[in-house]
Design the sequence.
């Protein structure tokens, strides 16, 4: 009997490996379909998360505005689900016809999970239909709780579906080490392939990123409806909705870097050369672009909050401080964007006397960058705190002491961040890496305890006047658009980074890409593809939202109660 | 409303254009698929240096760490007053020439970790073909020193060397990139695959790995085939420290006919 490996080899020699797509090419087709599918998928996974949270706030806080808001979020999902499925189908057809050998390899390992994926997508869709169309039928008493449970189930199905798809792509990045090019894929245990080194870090990173993304897109939707509003009440409703979307996006964004850090560490531990390619190799400039985008996000997010203070009576007390916050944010962004480990040729290296700039090189190291980003996060949190406090005067007897304690917490957190940032220059790399944990913990502890004190201090607080929802200049709404475009573009860029570090491998060091598109393009080309994908996605989303508007009138409800406090 | 729509479209397109413009203004580096490196028997030092520079700045990934001053010693610029690598290489280890020191540094990088740096360098003789390794050595020697690498240092320079053990292989490679132009001449395949960089056969090659001259008396055809397809399946006695060195991709770098030709050829060496 012939050796099975020989039979496999013989089959590989004769079967067709690649197809071609007219005009744009096979890789471009897969790139576009995969990216646009992913963007829709992120949207339909992110929005249900905060739809179910806002519904809960509506139920347990007995505030119908949140229930209506949740329903409006969910309405956006209906058509977006179809678009997700259509782009997913195009991706599968593309893979099976343009990359048949690679697709056959993946299906040989993952076929059972693909069937589970399809079944769960089916169940998820019908859960969504029940959730949305049953909204008004199951709106009271115990039925409402059952309805809310449907929302939770929707999230459970969606998360499992994403985890399954993540296992396929992370296997391509980090196949278990015992799998070699000669391993017969039909002999690979399914769970062994799923539970690869980067699967869980990607899962966690994507869950958080989906919330960020969903919040940003909802913010853009609300801003459009705000700009198109014909009445003051409608404008007030969509102003509030945009604020909530932005708040969700920025809150989740703050924890996203920590998940990204975990993913990066796992990549390094799995294969150091892959990590070096990502951070110091041909992709090194990508992180400078990423730093620029993050700077745009922080600055625009804060700008939106600062403009929003203009509609809050009492906010004028804090407005003089915003210029200092702006200075910290700009300085932080500059430090974070300082290039460090750039790939360079020998002439460039010789001209610089090394790859670092003699002065700026000191700002490009992780000690400086971690310090900068943690201070930016603290600053953004302070912006939010000032916004939240704008129309409130605490009346609890310990209000002054509480405020001083809060200020002290900020000072201590900033001090810890600066101390370890500076000390990091004088210790070995392995010690320095550990310092980032102390910096992060100091910032998170500050956010947690300051928030707790603030909530306690706000009890029975005197209102300086209701928020004038809807009294926002149009530029604030355009800021929300910039946030949505930037988040979407950033998602495309990070997708390129994750996929590109495999370079000319379909499956890292197991299955080589021998197609005409095996070389990984430079950032300039990638940026054009990303912009094209973002444009396609946003155009389709605009169409989807327009359809949603046709199907049902706005769900806003006018309320006086809603203007009592910010952040609710 | 049309004015508002136009403004929104303008902001979206403007933002996209800005990001695309910035990404196109930075240095453009594409990750190429490694190409075969052809070095004939009459290769000159200049050709070796030129080839080595390409490997150093490209597939070798050397610039990622060397030259930064934090991850690894500077090689092309001065390192703490000792000059570039071509100047200092002969002084690093007593009794070792520049060429010997550089080869051993690429082959056993953890043996010569410079004080103050971590042992993070991968074994480059696993990552690169012999032709690439020796061309990099020539390039490094040229940085302030004298190039004394010649064609005789490079195993199998008479034929085209595969670029890299990681650059080939993979099921996807099968059928497309076969050694020696798809020839089924076992000697040509063995030469092209760079087997003699480690193994000795019929009086040629290195003795880093087991001598294959009488391999047929130790292993039957099935065992040889299995060893090529899965090098970790068995390790010859006395070579345990070299476990994992042999590339695992040879099985897919050859087509089925080539693999069988090599197996039968080696099995016949009793």
Sequence:
């Amino acid at each position: 009997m012939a050796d099975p490996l020989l039979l496999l080899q013989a089959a590989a020699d004769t079967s067709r490996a690649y197809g071609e797509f007219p005009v744009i090419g096979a890789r471009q087709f897969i790139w576009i379909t995969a990216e646009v599918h992913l963007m829709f998928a992120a949207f339909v996974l992110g929005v249900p998360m905060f739809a179910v949270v806002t519904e809960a706030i509506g139920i347990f806080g007995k505030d119908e505005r949140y229930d209506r808001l949740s329903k409006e979020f969910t309405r956006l999902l209906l058509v977006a689900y179809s678009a997700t499925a259509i782009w997913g189908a195009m991706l599968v057809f593309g893979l099976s016809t343009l990359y048949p050998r690679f697709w056959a390899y993946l299906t040989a390992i993952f076929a059972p999970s693909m069937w589970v994926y399809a079944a769960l997508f089916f169940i998820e869709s019908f859960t969504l239909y029940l959730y949305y169309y049953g909204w008004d039928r199951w709106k009271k008493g115990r039925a409402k709780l059952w309805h809310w449970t449907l929302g939770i189930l929707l999230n459970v199905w969606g998360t499992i579906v994403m985890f399954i798809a993540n296992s396929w792509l992370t296997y391509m990045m980090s196949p278990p080490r015992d799998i070699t090019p000669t391993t017969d894929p039909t002999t690979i245990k399914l769970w062994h392939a799923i539970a690869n080194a980067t699967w869980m870090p990607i899962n966690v990173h994507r869950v958080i990123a989906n919330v960020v993304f969903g919040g940003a897109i909802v913010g853009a939707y609300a801003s459009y409806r705000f700009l198109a509003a014909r009445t003051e009440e409608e404008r007030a409703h969509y102003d509030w909705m945009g604020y909530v979307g932005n708040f969700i996006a920025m809150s989740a964004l703050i924890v996203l870097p920590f998940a990204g850090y975990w993913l990066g560490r796992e990549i390094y531990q799995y294969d150091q050369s892959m990590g070096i390619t990502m951070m110091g190799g041909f992709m090194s400039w990508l992180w400078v672009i990423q730093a620029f985008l993050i700077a745009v996000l922080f600055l625009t997010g804060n700008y939106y909050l600062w403009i929003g203070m203009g509609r809050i009576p009492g906010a004028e007390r804090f407005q003089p401080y915003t210029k200092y916050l702006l200075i910290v944010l700009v300085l932080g962004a500059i430090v974070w964007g300082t290039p460090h480990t750039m790939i360079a040729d020998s002439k460039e290296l010789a001209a610089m006397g090394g790859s670092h700039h003699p002065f700026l090189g000191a700002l490009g190291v992780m000690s400086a960058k971690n310090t900068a980003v943690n201070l930016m996060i603290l600053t953004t949190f302070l912006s939010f705190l000032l916004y939240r406090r704008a129309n409130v005067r605490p009346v609890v007897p310990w209000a002054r002491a509480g405020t001083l304690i809060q200020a002290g917490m900020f000072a201590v957190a900033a001090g810890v961040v600066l101390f370890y940032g500076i000390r990091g220059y004088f210790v070995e790399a392995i010690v320095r890496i550990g310092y980032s944990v102390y910096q992060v913990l100091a910032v998170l502890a500050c956010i947690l305890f300051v928030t707790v004190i603030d909530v306690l201090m706000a009890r029975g607080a005197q209102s300086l006047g209701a928020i004038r929802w809807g009294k926002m200049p149009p530029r604030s709404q355009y800021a929300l658009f910039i946030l949505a475009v930037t988040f979407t573009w950033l998602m495309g860029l990070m997708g390129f980074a994750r996929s590109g570090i495999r370079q000319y491998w379909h499956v890292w060091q197991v299955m080589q890409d021998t197609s005409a598109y095996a070389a990984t393009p430079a950032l300039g080309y990638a940026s054009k593809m990303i912009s094209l994908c973002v444009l396609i996605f946003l155009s389709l989303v605009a169409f989807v939202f327009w359809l949603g508007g046709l199907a049902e009138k706005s769900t806003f409800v006018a309320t006086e109660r809603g203007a009592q406090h910010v952040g609710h | 409303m049309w004015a508002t729509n136009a403004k929104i479209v303008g902001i979206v397109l403007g933002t996209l254009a800005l990001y695309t413009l910035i990404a196109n203004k930075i240095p453009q580096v594409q990750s190429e698929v490694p190409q075969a490196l052809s070095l004939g028997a009459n290769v000159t030092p200049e050709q070796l240096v030129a080839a080595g520079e390409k490997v150093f700045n490209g597939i070798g990934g050397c610039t990622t760490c060397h030259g930064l001053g934090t991850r690894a010693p500077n090689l092309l610029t001065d390192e703490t007053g000792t000059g570039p690598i071509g100047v200092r290489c002969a002084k690093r280890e007593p009794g070792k020439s520049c060429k010997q020191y550089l080869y051993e540094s690429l082959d056993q990088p953890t043996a010569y970790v410079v004080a103050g740096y971590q042992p993070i360098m991968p074994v480059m003789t696993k990552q690169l073909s012999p032709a690439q390794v020796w061309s990099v050595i020539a390039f490094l020697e040229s940085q302030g020193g004298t190039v004394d690498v010649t064609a005789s240092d490079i195993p199998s320079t008479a034929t085209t060397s595969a670029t890299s053990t990681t650059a080939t292989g993979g099921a996807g490679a099968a059928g497309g990139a076969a050694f020696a132009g798809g020839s089924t001449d076992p000697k040509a395949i063995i030469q092209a695959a760079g087997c003699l960089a480690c193994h000795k056969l019929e009086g040629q090659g290195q003795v880093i790995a087991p001598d294959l001259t009488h391999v047929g008396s130790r292993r039957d055809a099935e065992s040889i085939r299995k060893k090529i397809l899965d090098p970790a399946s068995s390790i010859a006695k006395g070579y345990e420290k070299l476990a994992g060195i042999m590339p695992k991709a040879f099985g897919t770098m050859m087509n089925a006919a080539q693999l069988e030709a090599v197996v039968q050829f080696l099995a016949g060496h009793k």
Notes: Confidence is low (pLDDT under 50) at residues 157-177 of chain B. Chain B touches chain A through 68 residues (CB under 8 Å). Strands of chain B lie at 200-201, 204-205.
